[in-house]
Structure formats: C-alpha cells, structure tokens
C-alpha cells in the first residue's frame, strides 16, 4: 500500500560530517562540515604548493644550466649576440612566471590607500567604477551606519571596523578570482577575527557570536553584488536546471511523497502557505544569516503543519518529505545560487551547529533528492515516470480515505486531471465529427455530379420533342391575345345599342 510506504527516509547520522566530528555536513563540501572541509582543502593546497615549488625549482635549475651553456657558446661566438639577448629576455620572463607560482596562493596584499580620519572613517578609498555605485547604495550605507552604532560601545570597535572596511575594499580587487578562492578569503577573515575576539572576550562566546553576526551583515551587504552568483561559476546554469526540473515535477502529489499534512485544516493550510512564502523570500535577502532565518521559519511552519495534522510531534521522517513537497510547490527563485552563497560566505559556526545548520542541511538534502528523483522513489514504474515527466500523460489518483487525500489541494488537482481528460475526449470527438463532415461533403459533391450527369443524359436523349412542344405552346399563347384584341376593336367601333325611350304624359 502506498500509504504504508516510507519512500523518503534520511537517518540523522547522514546529516553529520563524514569525518565524525559531530558537526553538520554539507553536500557542497562532499558531506563534510566547514571545518573539516577547510582542513582537507588546506592539505590539498599545501600539497599542490609543494609540488609547484618542486616543479618551479626544477625548471629554474634547467633554465640556469641552459643559460650558462648559452653564455659559454656566446663568448666563443660573438656573432650571435642578438640571439643571446633574446634568450636572456626569455629567461627573465620564465623566471617571472616561476615567481608567480607562489603568489597565486597568497592573498593579494594590494589595498587602496586609506586616510586616517575619525574613530570610524566611513569614506571609502578610490575603487573601480562598478563598486562606487554599490558602496554608495542605500543598503550599504545603512549597513555601515548600523555597524558603526553597534561597535561604538566596544573598546576595540574602531580596530574591528578598520579591519572589516580594509578587507571589503581589498575584495574589490579580487573580483577575477574563482568563487572558491573568494570564499576561502572570507572564511579566513572570519576565523582570524573570531580567534582574536575570543582571546579578547574570554568566557563570552555569545558576545563574540553577536559581533561576528554584525561583521557578516556589514561585509556581505557591501560585497553582495560582487560575490553572489559570480560569473566565474555555473550557479546560474544550475538555477535554470533545478527550476526546469521542479516544473517538470508539477504532477507529484502529497500521496506520492507520503506527506502527513492535511491541508483541509485551516491552520495547516495557513502554515503551508507561510512555509512557501518564507522559502521564496530567501532570495530577497542579502545577508547569509537572513537567508538562513527564512529557511528556519519555513521549517518551523512545516513542523507546525505536521503537528496539527497528526496531533503529535513530527519526526525527521515526516519533516524531510514535507520540506521536499514545499520546495516543489514553491519552486524558489535562484535556489542553487542561494544555497551556494550561504555555503561560501556564511559564518561557519552557524552552519556547523544549531537549528539554522540543521534546517539548512535538510534543505540541501531535499534539493539533492529532487535532482535524483525517479519512479522508484514515488512507487511508480519507469515508463509511468517518463510519461508524466514528458507531459504525455497525467496520473489518476484514487480517492483515498486518509485525511491528506481529502485536502483542498488534492481535490483541486484531481479536478484538473479530470478536466484535462475531458478536454482530451472532446478533442477526439471533434476529430471524429470533422472526419464525418469531410466525408459528407465528399458524398454531396459526388451526388451533385451524378445528378448533373443524369440530367444531361435525359436532355441529350429527347431533343426534338422538347423543341416541338415548346413551339406549340408558344403559338397558342400568342393566338389568344390576338382574338381578344380583335373583339375589343369591334366593340369599340360599333355604336352602342339603342335604348327604349319613355315619354312622360
């Protein structure tokens, strides 16, 4: 029975980091948490740097040996001096390329010159034209004022502001870097600043988290257009792919996903609408923390809808299918870009622990499930699944006795399917009527031709009798008027009869 099937199941251990550190993992990090991912990435990068160094040193030695050999040949053959100058210039270019190997992995130290003003100098240094409009935008200015007001009571507030401002300005000159490199720079800054704050505010981790939240809000508001869905990534392509995928899955219903939600209950229906609104609203936020807050509110509305429908607390097996159903109904804009943006630039401690990290990990799992959804997951055959995905057929759902099957959403969907089937039947009937009309038209044309041929045959068979009858009829008709006319003439010519006269006595 479909109602007894639990096709979507996710063990809680699958949400945790694969290395067993106890933090939440992420599909974008191959199931690792941000800490383990950074450590793994650092090890790979250090290994790559060492290999590049070894390669650079070997190339350098080979170039030096080749240059020394050329110099010896040049001294013995002065006539090839121009070629030796060319080789020397080539060697210098090669040396400069070798030196850039180490610079590739070192963050750029170029920062625009700064003027030391008041305690919180908000004047930005010269920057490219594309960033001038961004830094002068209303949102950026508002975030800067709020950040300054937050830091004023702190003794080290001026230093924190200067570091954050310098870092955001330096990021403008790294726009050509890949998204992973930009993420690494931001995450390094978060980690270094957090460690310094923990040293300064010992025993006050909540205070440090509050400061880091404000730092994230200030920096990401200013860098949003720079780092959200950058051109160096395929985030936009992934957005279009998942959006098209969700549209193709419009026929998936509550019964298929085993969602324990009864939308006939007004409170449940209201919670579902709020959950859809929250996950759509995520795209309108600029700060990763605010985007996570939308996901958290959406998840809480889901838990409330399940609790009211089942009249008991929801479990993880109930939550994930319902979240998938909400995502399918909402089809949030730029879903993959928002997930990648949160993954790359959110405060790592927020993703590793707490309810925000838990709900975000479930959202990533829901998106991964939608991308890999097949007929087996929905208790359908592969042929039926392909027909429904291509739009060549629509499923017919029986009216079950469960609460969820009687919901207004399911009833409306059933009516849509019935009307689609009715339209299909009407279309077939219209085709049959048109075919019969075309056949009737052909029969009428044939009958008309047949009658014309018969009439022509009859006319050709009796031509003399027809002409004589016509002539006789014409003579009789002309003679009658002549007789009448002569009689009238005689009457007019003869005098009127005499009438007896009576004389009076």
From TrEMBL:
<protein>
    <submittedName>
        <fullName>Rab5 GDP/GTP exchange factor-like</fullName>
    </submittedName>
</protein>
<feature type="region of interest" description="Disordered">
    <location>
        <begin position="460"/>
        <end position="505"/>
    </location>
</feature>
<keyword id="KW-0479">Metal-binding</keyword>
<dbReference type="GO" id="GO:0030139">
    <property type="term" value="C:endocytic vesicle"/>
</dbReference>
<dbReference type="InterPro" id="IPR003123">
    <property type="entry name" value="VPS9"/>
</dbReference>
<keyword id="KW-0863">Zinc-finger</keyword>
<dbReference type="GO" id="GO:0008270">
    <property type="term" value="F:zinc ion binding"/>
</dbReference>
<feature type="domain" description="A20-type">
    <location>
        <begin position="11"/>
        <end position="45"/>
    </location>
</feature>
<feature type="compositionally biased region" description="Polar residues">
    <location>
        <begin position="69"/>
        <end position="82"/>
    </location>
</feature>
<dbReference type="InterPro" id="IPR041545">
    <property type="entry name" value="DUF5601"/>
</dbReference>
<feature type="compositionally biased region" description="Basic and acidic residues">
    <location>
        <begin position="85"/>
        <end position="96"/>
    </location>
</feature>
<feature type="region of interest" description="Disordered">
    <location>
        <begin position="64"/>
        <end position="140"/>
    </location>
</feature>
<feature type="compositionally biased region" description="Low complexity">
    <location>
        <begin position="469"/>
        <end position="483"/>
    </location>
</feature>
<dbReference type="InterPro" id="IPR037191">
    <property type="entry name" value="VPS9_dom_sf"/>
</dbReference>
<dbReference type="GO" id="GO:0005085">
    <property type="term" value="F:guanyl-nucleotide exchange factor activity"/>
</dbReference>
<feature type="compositionally biased region" description="Low complexity">
    <location>
        <begin position="124"/>
        <end position="135"/>
    </location>
</feature>
<dbReference type="GO" id="GO:0005829">
    <property type="term" value="C:cytosol"/>
</dbReference>
<dbReference type="GO" id="GO:0016192">
    <property type="term" value="P:vesicle-mediated transport"/>
</dbReference>
<keyword id="KW-0862">Zinc</keyword>
<dbReference type="GO" id="GO:0003677">
    <property type="term" value="F:DNA binding"/>
</dbReference>
<dbReference type="Pfam" id="PF02204">
    <property type="entry name" value="VPS9"/>
</dbReference>
<dbReference type="InterPro" id="IPR002653">
    <property type="entry name" value="Znf_A20"/>
</dbReference>
<dbReference type="GO" id="GO:0031267">
    <property type="term" value="F:small GTPase binding"/>
</dbReference>
<dbReference type="Pfam" id="PF18151">
    <property type="entry name" value="DUF5601"/>
</dbReference>
<dbReference type="Pfam" id="PF01754">
    <property type="entry name" value="zf-A20"/>
</dbReference>
<feature type="domain" description="VPS9">
    <location>
        <begin position="236"/>
        <end position="379"/>
    </location>
</feature>
<dbReference type="InterPro" id="IPR045046">
    <property type="entry name" value="Vps9-like"/>
</dbReference>
